[in-house]
Fold these 2 entries.
Entry 1:
Amino acid sequence: MRMGLSLPAVMILGGVVYGQTVAQPRLMEAPTAAPCVVQDEWATPAEKSCYATTPDYAATMAYLKRVEAAAPGEIKIEPFGKTGEGRELDIVVASRDGVFDPAAIHAAKRPVVLVQNSIHAGEMDGKDACLALLRDMVITKSKSALLERAVFVFIPMYNADGHERRSRYNRINQDGPAEMGWRGNGTNLNLNRDYQKADAPETRAFLAMFHQWMPDFFVDDHVTDGADYQYDVTFTMDDGPNVPAGTAKWVDEVATPTLERYVDAHGHLASPTYITLASDNDPAEGLGFNDNPPRFSTGYMILEGRPGMLVELHMLKDYRTRVTGNYEILAGLMELVNRDADKLIALNAAADQDAKTMGSHPLSNVKYPLALSWGGQTTPFLFRGYKYTRELSGVSGAMWVRYTHEPWNVSLPAQTGFKVTAETTPPAAYLIPAQWTQVISVLAAHQVEMTRTTAAWSGVVETYRCNGMVWQGPPFEGRHPTFNGEAQHDAGRFGSCVLVREPLSFPAGSVVVRLNQRLSRVAMAWLEPAAPDSALQWGFFDSIFEQKEYGEAYVLEELAREMMAKDPKLKAEFERKVASDPAFAGSPNARLEFFYERSPWYAANRVGLYPVGRLSSLEGIPVH
Ligand SMILES: [Zn+2]
């Protein structure tokens, strides 16, 4: 069923099934009189409602437990943590031979696919698709071949607390189901901005489960925001310069075209890229740039060296079209992973090996990209949009885009070039002073290997001097980072961090993070200040930018006179500044601070001196 042809399902949303008569907030179609009757005892709750509704947490788990009871040798439901509100988080494992131990599965060279649903709990299409796919793998057996070699693991409701904050008013842009969950978790954090900083209990539980399972392929299911167009299934797999080269090649040459063809051959229309318009009020300007820093699930997969796929069903298609479209791309992926199992396992092993050699780069001077932005190149993209009109709006005062449902198939420029905006030569190891406990706790949550120093140590190390930071005023994800909220490519507020060599002190119990480990990229993304989701940018090091001691004016008066007497050049510089800078000349404080800032008393504040050392070797460091 192609989109645009399936409007009757919208009408069902009027509530015929359950007799609801409350108007949808924005869908104008009249309710249909056609009743919905589904007899099949294994119909999923969404199918039973003819896709008018999605089951709540209890009904979802009840269905899954029925499937588990009917196919105990192939299904296992496993808790992996708790949400902030205390709900159990589960994965569902489908394994044809009843082996549910991840180590045994990997030893048998069977690829593991992990599918995450409902991270934005108003976007739960993937959950209902996974219920149907699971049923078809182990109950009806129409898809049992998909478990021939691969193991299918899915999280039905990752943001379970958001999932239960149900309302018909949660997603104004989205066409059904009748009620849906909320984007934020129990503390209103967006879990899909939390992968690197790991503030939420859900993220910490995910990281532990992820490392236990070490999936070979990761999927995160969503529903779009943004423009209107013909596609119902859109998806993106990262292939940028920080994706291991072999993986990027397989993603571009095999996985992406295979899934596009599969989805199109199964009654849907796929876009092999997530559609972001370069300009919101003129689709003709083309498609914008997609890059995922590690705050996002799929961006985090880059650091783990695993291919990740963002699936986004189009919000304006009806729920039946979206759930069945999500089903098809997952079925297509499972088919591909079974077919390319050996290749995929080898690519992941190569990525792990590559990550382990990161700490040897001080010798070879290899640069590792930390942050990317659009590089200015575009590639023609055959866009299947809808014709639209633009007119000046008396409401907004800006151009008003109105979409028709008439196809507009046109070649548009798509931004595809990458520019490296921050890079570094990886050190052999980082040394984090013991007192930065929250910074260390995040690395521990990521299961980065660390050792502790056995005695205090001081010495000259490579580190950064940072200045010019501007912190965002309104909160973003409960913090006030040095970047501008969602505009992750806005580097203007970051200021600069310059590599320096400085004497630093590290108490006993300081943390050594060697980069000869599989998670070397996770450590670099967290500890290199210029990386887009670094601890410094998220505010974990804010206190290093605070001046703690000040000079009293009558003390600085004396200091200024002494300094000018000793240093005629300094005196001349001061006089020039007074003559040329009226704001400076008019500020008694600034005139006195001029001298304090140039004195050893100010330097003792160490404002902006990054406390983490970059070591080129561990020689002399007291560590086992
Ligand atoms: Zn989403």
Entry 2:
Amino acid sequence: MLQNVVAINDLFQPLTVGSLTVPNRFAMAPMTRQASPGGVPGADVAEYYRRRAAGGVGLIITEGVRLPDPAAGYPFSIPTIAGDEVVARWSRVVAAVHAEGGTIAAQLWHQGAERDDADGVTPVSPSGVDGLGRAKGRALETDELPGIAELFAQAARTAREVGFDAVELHGAHGYLLDEFFWERTNARTDGYGGDLAARTRFPAEVVAAVRAAVGPDYPVIFRFSQWKGLDYTASIADDPTQLQELLAPLVEAGVDIFHPSTRRHYVPAFPDHDSQLSLAGWTKKVAGLPVIAVGSVGLETQFRSEKQGQVIQPAPVERLVEQFGAGEFDIVAIGRALLADPAWVNRLRDGELDGFAGYDPATALASLA
Ligand SMILES: Cc1cc2nc3c(=O)[nH]c(=O)nc-3n(C[C@H](O)[C@H](O)[C@H](O)COP(=O)(O)O)c2cc1C
């Protein structure tokens, strides 16, 4: 128990990566809200993030931000990042978070084939196929790829100018970059499809373009996942060797922090190889970079439970603390618990979370003295 207490306090120590110093190890997971009419984040958006920073979150990762191209995302109430008004409004969001002592990263998002085509805009993707393998939209031409990489780069440059402390590239959940990784959605024959190295090529080119745009010290976070919005059992890396093959080119291209998205942080990623180690732990091991863990932290209810309508229940975080103690991750992202309670992190720090057994603030203080 003493070990756990010490580890909890360690979660409240800062972490520096390049030009970013996160005051503690808690991030807010990116969560789409569709609350920015016309793509412009208003005062309510600034207040929404400010409250989470005031509640103790060290690093806000914004909801997915649409790249400034109509095909990149829909509906348009998802915020974007181009144009004077949008940029001015994001500056206020950033200032509000900074005023509370927090830091903030913009998550850059291209939805690929998962873009809703209700408005008649044709979705674009590696092979014109969605996450269920159905024809949707059209395949990108090879000579269009540099333009998409430049969209990411330009958005990252703008994010930096606005004052965001980092950018996160959304390469998870079956959206554009992930559609390149995944065999089901990538049947290209132009060198951007085929084996894992070829499927990683375009996302790595995007990372390189972003890195060139933001300079050497500005943190670039890359989010990826095995699971997809349309298939929880999907896999892009079947074993640790494949995970290494997937991540190495991204490291080479300039990623600073990986954010492997899992629905449950406590599930072993490759049980045949290790009965405990999470995807975050494996990512840290094979990539050698700081890692953000995520997935049902502090909640009894797993993310996107098959049992619809379940009430979200708080749960203890001992397993998370054990994983941190074992060096499996550097930062943990919290999603739904922060929607339910903007001050979740401060309540954890103060020992006020229900069901958090084994945490005694008095002992914790004594152990630090
Ligand atoms: C309402 C909602 C919106 C989400 N939107 C995004 C998003 O824009 N980008 C993204 O990468 N993940 C998104 N996610 C996934 C979360 O970032 C996170 O990985 C997931 O909620 C699991 O964490 P949790 O169990 O702590 O909620 C969303 C999740 C929720 C609940």
